[in-house]
Design a protein that fits this description.
heterodimer, A: alpha/beta, D-Maltodextrin-Binding Protein, domain 2, 2 domains, 5-stranded mixed sheet, 4-stranded mixed sheet, globular, B: 287 residues, mainly alpha, MetI-like fold, two-stranded antiparallel sheet, 74% helix
């Protein structure tokens, strides 16, 4: 009896193991954000039956620490990583990423936006392949404009920050009279991130970092920065037109009608357009600028990199190539992140596809055009991670009432002290 | 036979000692070693650098700021927690009707993890939608920024830490109180000692050992305070809650600067040792 059972168990065990024995499948791990990735992975696996992709999806704030710890320790996993483009030089300097030049054909490289190729390269070598890029628009709730008896701006109008300040104050309503507004006039989608806020000082002629790519004294505490962030401070603290406190994701609040205007990415266009339950009427206009300054728009987004220590170079580079070029890139744009594509062939679809002929999806064409208006990438520096994280703390402080000049000087002190190790 | 019997206690101690070595001693030594190396950014090689990391952090104003915050935090939170824990344990040591139920209720915070506590307190202290500000507005008091104010954030963290700390430490003190033989207190009463006299002359001296343990353990626990900072303030606003433990995490795991991170940990280790030494010396027994 016992022998029979033992034989049976052994057989069962062998059967359960057999698929992995029968076929040699390489599994690669893709460290990424919570984007809908199933369609892309399915298609890739169908084309490459010998490769299996496991998406390890983590939160935006955890991604950088994870990369830092795992790649820093020389781990072979994850094989493929989502790279926020300003971090490319820091990762490349540390030899964490595989040089990708041999992977791509000349046509593939030419199809990418030149700025995106530059941003993914370090000292002339491509370390992260462009997947997406970005721009920013002003999203507004038409109901709020009706309520204050004002005509909303058209898709090609560009309001000044001064106008935004005035309108935002009028659009902040405390309907239940408890002393806290229920409807806020304005907010930045990424309210404490340099990605979006850099456009403020840059509209006034400020810079993001010194010429050596490391120094910030006299740059991020320059008169332009102080003026720009005094505006930012006033929005939250003086005009009380934007909510303070914890960071949150404004599109969620915009959909419920509790935020009248926000500056945000074009990924919100399909989101709002496809939301059948959305009760508000909305529109977009161009990215605001200071009346005394010039329009400047944020740009840059996600690239894909391959871990220099991966044990599956072929499979990993194949996947990186799939998501960043041709049909894979198009699929990722349609079914995946919804971010702006970095491939000119995919970008061209905005102009030709009927889907973008009508409102509100036609706002994507507005965005595609806005992406060409003085796009300003984030600072190119090997210490971007420290730069970004420290500024994020500082912006959060200013948003919650800290003195602007004092805070920017503290940022200088902290960033300079971190940059010392790169000198 | 005799020799093997001598080893039996060590055999029983071995599992605990092994865990202590693997999880405490080895990491401590590894940290001390790591603090003398720098990572060459370009080649990824570890290069021996002597005291370079220490030199770097000692010249770093952010390190000194978090050092200062950590000391202020410890000087505030430890006496507050121990004083409240002592009061609470005396209260629940009274034989009053319903005291059993009260004991269970006040012990509840210990059963909730620190992370959950931090998140729930974070929601309650929120500036716009928090319950506490809701109550304050009902009373006609202006909304407070709590975790977003330089003046209130550290105090908010102290409140959150004490929410768990006070009941936890009072449990230890309660055990000490219940170890005091009742005849001693009765004899004092018969001899005409007032309640205050019997507290200061009998209860406190007999609690000395327990208090010494609580003081040391509380100091260490608060020096290692990390989760509420990570979850609620990220060291802000303006570094006002940037405890060394958080700065260490930031350097090591966010910026990948393990050398500076290990150097900070090593400095902290020395300071904790000194403080504990002083505490044990001050509370040393004559017996």
């Amino acid at each position: 009896m016992f022998v029979k059972r033992a034989i049976l168990m052994t057989l069962l065990l062998l059967i359960s193991l057999s698929p992995s024995l029968a076929q040699d499948v390489t599994t690669i791990t893709w460290l990424t954000l919570g984007w809908p990735s199933e369609a892309l992975i399915e298609e890739f696996e169908a084309r490459n039956p010998d490769i299996k992709v496991e998406a390890e999806q983590i939160g935006f704030n955890d991604l950088f620490a994870q990369i830092q710890v795992r790649l820093g320790a020389g781990s072979a996993v994850p094989d493929v990583i989502a790279v926020d483009v300003p971090l490319v030089s820091g990762y490349a300097l540390r030899n964490w990423l595989l040089p990708l030049d041999p992977v791509f054909t000349g046509d593939e490289v030419e199809d990418w936006l030149p700025a995106a190729v530059n941003a993914g390269s370090y000292e002339g070598t491509l370390y992260a392949a462009p997947v997406s890029t970005s721009t920013q628009l002003l999203f507004y709730n038409k109901g709020c404009f009706d309520r204050i008896g004002m005509e909303p701006p058209g898709a090609d109008d560009r309001l000044t920050w001064e106008e935004i300040a005035e309108i935002a104050q009028e659009m902040t309503f405390d309907d239940d009279g408890d002393g806290t507004p229920d409807v806020w006039g304005f907010i930045w989608e990424q309210m404490v991130r340099i990605y979006q806020l850099q456009a403020l000082p840059e509209s006034l002629g400020g810079d993001a970092i010194g010429e050596d790519g490391l120094s910030v004294d006299g740059v991020i505490n320059s008169p332009e920065w102080i003026e720009a962030f005094t505006y930012y401070y006033n929005m939250f603290n003086v005009w009380n037109a934007a909510p303070q406190g914890e960071e949150f994701w404004p599109p969620d609040i915009f959909e419920t009608g509790n935020i009248c205007m926000f500056v945000g990415g074009p990924w919100n266009i399909p989101r709002f357009a496809k939301n059948a339950d959305l009760e508000i009427e909305w529109g977009v206009s161009r990215h605001p600028y200071f009346a005394d300054g010039v329009p400047a728009t944020p740009t840059g987004s996600w690239h894909i990199g391959v871990n220099a220590n991966t044990e599956n170079v072929d499979a990993a580079t194949k996947f990186a190539q799939f998501i960043s070029t041709g049909e894979g890139a198009e699929l990722w744009w349609r079914e995946g992140s919804g971010d702006f594509p970095a491939q000119q062939s995919v970008l061209a679809l905005f102009a030709t596809e009927a889907e973008f002929d009508e409102l509100p999806m036609s706002y994507m064409r507005t965005a595609a055009d806005e992406a060409t208006v003085n796009p300003r990438p984030r600072a190119v520096t090997v210490g971007f991670l420290e730069y970004e994280q420290i500024l994020q703390n500082i912006f959060q402080d200013i948003r919650n009432g800290a003195d602007v000049e004092e805070s920017l000087n503290l940022a200088v002190q902290r960033i300079e002290s971190e940059m010392a190790k790169y000198r | 036979m005799r020799v093997s019997r001598q080893f039996i206690p060590y055999l029983f101690l071995a599992p605990a000692l092994l865990l202590l070595i693997v999880f405490n001693l080895v990491p401590t030594i590894a940290t001390l070693v790591e603090s003398t190396f720098v990572l060459s950014l370009r080649s990824g090689e570890r290069v021996f650098a002597g005291f370079a990391n220490y030199n770097r952090i000692f010249n770093d104003p952010v390190f000194w700021k978090s050092f200062q915050v950590t000391i202020v935090f410890s000087l505030l939170v430890n006496p507050i927690q121990i004083f409240l824990a002592l009061c609470l344990s005396i209260l629940i040591n009274q034989k009053l009707p319903g005291i059993g139920l009260f004991r269970s209720i006040y012990l509840l915070p210990i059963a909730v993890s620190l992370n959950v506590t931090a998140i729930v307190w974070g929601l309650m202290l929120d500036q716009n939608s928090g319950m506490i500000n809701g109550i304050l507005t009902q009373w006609g008091i202006a909304r407070q920024p709590f975790l977003h104010s330089v003046d209130q954030a550290l105090w908010s963290i102290i409140v959150i830490a004490s929410w768990i700390g006070v009941p936890l430490w009072s449990l230890f003190i309660l055990a000490g109180l219940q170890n005091i033989p009742p005849p001693v207190l009765e004899a004092a009463k018969i001899d005409g000692a007032s309640a205050w006299q019997s507290f200061t002359k009998i209860t406190l001296p007999l609690l000395r050992r327990v208090l010494a343990f609580v003081l040391v353990a509380d100091t260490v626990a608060n020096f290692l305070m990390f989760a509420p900072i990570l979850l609620l303030t990220n060291g802000g606003p303006q570094l006002s809650t940037n405890l060394i433990m958080y700065e260490t995490y930031r350097r090591g795991f966010l910026y990948g600067d393990l050398g500076a991170s290990s150097a900070m940990l090593s400095v902290m280790l020395v300071i904790v040792f000194i403080i504990i030494g002083v505490e044990l010396y001050l509370l040393r027994g004559q017996d």
